[in-house]
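Input.
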Amino acid sequence: MSDADIKKRSTMSVHFSSKTDNWATPQDFFDAVNDEFSLLWDVCASHENAKLPFYWTRDQDGLSADWRGKRVWMNPPYGSEIGKWVEKAATGGAAIAVCLLPARTDTRWFHRHIYGNPKAEMRFAKGRLKFGGAATSAPFPSMLVIFRQRRGSNSAVPG
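Output.
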């Protein structure tokens, strides 16, 4: 195995490791999403990677915060608590919650809160995203899941 192969393998392995579960959203990807949805709150941010004017850090605990009526962006930690974040986006009362998630359609959180949920819209990213701070693209596909609160049975909450 060449030095280049070893380096590539070691930089990719961080995506599978517990060294970090917090990866910054690629700015151009986020900008395109925000142009469409006009979001205001980043619920899983750090001071260094917040994408919006209002945000909660890990210490401020966006998972426990009140999302009701808010237009939120969520790129959650991709570790063992991701299911809690997806549940909050699905049930937390945000006017709209736009979530960047690994496209793991075999997980409990996907089947419990996304698949078959009439409030959830799925969009799969083309190719693999290169998250902030990573030397290479992610080794997994990504998806956007958009949860919209509904009035009655068929209409989305406006703006």
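Residues 89 and 97 are 6 Å apart (CA to CA).
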